[in-house]
């Protein structure tokens, strides 16, 4: 994959970034193991005997960002081997989760769903339930501390099953056991190509029978058929990334007469794209991550993608339900405020459009209706 990305801000976006940071935001696609603080990773690695490429926090963050921008998937994934290695005890999971909440609050996030795979955190004997309980304890500590300061941040867990490990049935049962204790939904993550949702169809049926909502990583490392399978076999209510739905959108070869008498070209939606748009299936888009992982490479005319090649704006203009996310804040070197500022600079969005993305995400969240309505009022009042 070849990509060209830029730092989180340029001189022209600094003031906008600060304005966005002060406003309430919604984050639906953020991996717990991709968002550690560099200093925390260094401290925990030292205690656990995990060797890092550097023990300087700024240098470590820079290395991960350079790896993510390199175009090498192997280098991109280096960080996850290190972060999961230090997240193997209840104490460490609790700390990482608490700091996760604190960092979201510092960026102005008021509602988030954090996804992670408990099965990846059992190397030192934790049970799946113990791992979930530790993360929930950390999240609650963080939320309670902010509440004491009259600040609001609400965070729910999404239990992820790794596609390559065939433990989806266990993960579903885990989600069912903790659905009233912090877990709000389910996800499958890991290699998309070769591990379709249909492989886990019984697990998704069990989720549906238990009335637990699901989001599915699809349309990132694989194309339209992966999205179709997420919708059919995975019964996905949201799509993790989903950007390659744009491959199911085309332009007519022959012009048609427009209302003003000139020539225009018709936008043609394939069956999957039409289903996703017409039923407002939410797309959890992560702009910088999509650039770094090569998800938007098919849309670059010269083979070198930049953020302006991202189909985000086209999808938004066509009426798709799009939201903005970070995916992995440490690995990609981003914040949610920075991602919004990046899109504003790339596509000329005003605050009104950026507010739309928050409401899209909130209304597609796995919160209850009453909670969504309360947060929606808070967000709309602030963004006005």
Verbal overview:
- The chain has one domain: Alpha-Beta Barrel (TIM Barrel), CATH 3.20.20.
- It has 16 helices and twelve strands.
- It has a four-stranded parallel sheet. A four-stranded parallel sheet has the order 5-6-11-12.
- Helix 6 links the parallel strand 2 and strand 3.
- The N terminus is likely disordered.
| Mean pLDDT over the residues | 94
Total count of domains: 1
Please report which band the strand proportion falls in: under 5%, 5-15%, 15-25%, 25-35%, 35-45% or over 45%. 5-15%
Percent helix: 40-55%
Structural category is: alpha/beta
- What is the tally of helical segments? 16
> Uncertain segments of ≥5 residues (pLDDT<50)?
1-10
- How many distinct beta strands? 12
In summary, what is this structure?
This protein is of the alpha/beta class and 384 residues long. The protein has 16 helices and twelve strands.
Give the secondary structure arrangement, pairings included.
Layout (H helix, E strand, L loop, with lengths): L13 H8 L3 E7 L6 H11 L8 H13 L3 H13 L4 H17 L2 E8 L11 H21 L5 E9 L5 H10 L5 E7 L11 H9 L5 E4 L5 H9 L5 E4 L7 E3 L4 E2 L5 E2 L2 E3 L1 H8 L3 E4 L1 H6 L19 H6 L4 E3 L4 H4 L3 H12 L3 H13 L5 H15 L1
Parallel strand pairs: 1-2, 2-3, 3-4, 5-6, 6-11, 11-12
Antiparallel strand pairs: 7-10, 8-9
Helix pairs in contact: 1-14, 3-4, 5-6, 7-8, 15-16
